[in-house]
Design a protein that fits this description.
Elements: E1 2-7, E2 11-15, E3 21-26, H1 32-40, H2 46-56, E4 61-64, E5 78-80, H3 85-92, H4 101-120, H5 123-152, H6 165-174, H7 178-184, H8 202-236, H9 238-244, H10 246-256, H11 259-264, H12 267-272, H13 276-285, H14 299-302, H15 309-330, H16 337-351, H17 357-382
Parallel strand pairs: 1-4, 4-5
Antiparallel strand pairs: 1-2, 2-3
Helix pairs in contact: 1-4, 5-8, 5-10, 6-8, 8-9, 8-10, 9-10, 9-15, 15-16
């Protein structure tokens, strides 16, 4: 004998071959949204476990509508079939079981709102916003500094000897006049700088100083966000942080759309994340596929010999996948992950001190294709 199990917004229902209700386990009224959310997250809720236990006594085969795997149930009598006979009967006869479409729509609207709130409250969403903010702040600071350098040069052109943008802004924001700046950093300027005439309107000097102060505050905010990202990464992804650092780890999480999504990606996807344009170009025109994406920013990949970068990137991607899965699923910390990675990098570099004939040939082909593209562009411009 076989029976069919399905569920609705009220709870789990079991039907026999003749579509007669043989058992039911209803959700508590104040827990309906939580139960539906747990089911969508592929969890076996209490009501489902209880109804399976009930019908197992009298039926040899239990056909259940489910989004879970057969191995999750650990019951030889269970078969998964979506939709099944009982589920179809329920959906065609809602009124018979005290259900109506308006009520169902309302419940699922509440479920959608619940999921949005839960998603927005998750720690990695704040991390994603923070790392994206860093990129935008960097872009903004770069433009603002370019402007203040050009503007301040009208008053104190000798300031161009200060190459560090951070030092440049700090000196202007904390020192109102040329004399104050030279006193703060005398070693940077020649002795005859003060002999130059100082014929600037005080109002012009004041506004430049305030402009520099706003940039300086933005630089401080950037540092605070960096510290925030580091603390956040230590809390939610300590293994990933140890392996690739806070900034790159946060970028990987952001690119994947969340730490859980990153955890279920295969390492081959992690390896080329951030190189989607090159991948699509490969698929479209047959160019060589990319060997790495965001993970090229890792010093061990970027600093390796060019013929070993692909091997190191592939190995790093595998270790990133393992690290994120530890952070998400097992919550264990491997303090040796980074050292093991560095040792394997050294081993790859030691075993491959020179490029092979194949890698040399590939590099030559790549340079030839680049030269061809440049020539074609020049020809088009001439035309």
């Amino acid at each position: 004998m076989e029976c069919y199990i399905t569920y609705s917004i009220k709870g789990f229902l079991a039907f026999n071959n003749e579509n007669k209700l043989i058992a039911e386990e209803l959700f508590p009224e104040n827990e309906i949204i939580n139960r539906l959310a747990e089911i969508e997250e592929k969890q076996i809720v209490d009501e489902e476990a209880k109804i399976i236990e009930k019908v197992s006594k009298d039926y040899d085969e239990i056909i259940i509508e489910s989004n879970k795997r057969l191995s999750d149930y650990n019951n030889d009598k269970i078969k998964i079939q979506t939709p099944n006979q009982g589920g179809e009967y329920l959906r065609n006869n809602y009124s018979e079981f005290g259900l109506n479409h308006e009520e169902i729509t309302e419940i699922y609207q509440r479920l959608a709102i619940y999921k949005i709130k839960k998603e927005s409250a998750s720690e990695d969403k704040h991390l994603i916003q923070a790392i994206n903010s860093i990129d935008e702040i960097d872009e903004t600071i770069s433009k603002l500094i370019e402007r203040i350098r050009e503007w301040y040069a009208l008053y104190f052109p000798e300031m161009d000897v200060i190459r560090s943008n951070e030092t440049y802004i700090k000196l202007i924001s904390q020192n109102k006049t040329k004399e104050n700046i030279i006193e703060a950093k005398p070693e940077a300027f020649p002795t005859n700088v003060l002999d130059l005439e100082d014929d600037i309107n005080p109002q012009d000097l004041e506004i430049m100083n305030k402009y520099a102060q706003s940039i300086y505050e933005l630089q401080k905010t950037r540092k605070e966000i960096e510290e925030y990202i580091d603390n956040k990464m230590e809390a939610i992804a300590p293994n990933l942080r140890l392996l690739v650092g806070s900034s790159l780890g946060a970028k990987l999480i952001s690119h994947a759309g969340g730490i859980k999504r990153l955890a279920i990606y295969p390492s081959s996807t992690v390896q080329i994340m951030g190189a989607e344009k090159a991948l699509f170009r490969h698929l479209k025109s047959g160019d060589r596929p990319p060997k790495y994406g965001l993970i090229y920013q890792h010093p061990q990949v970027r600093g390796a010999n060019w013929w070993n970068r692909g091997k190191i990137a592939r190995m790093l991607a595998g270790k990133i996948s393992l690290a994120v899965r530890r952070d998400v699923f097992t919550k264990t910390f491997d303090e040796n992950a980074f050292n093991d990675f560095v040792l394997k990098v050294e081993e790859i570099e030691k075993n491959n001190p020179f490029p092979t004939k194949t890698t040399k040939k590939r590099k030559e082909e790549k340079s030839k294709s680049k030269n061809k593209k440049r020539k074609n562009k020049k020809r088009k411009k001439r035309r």
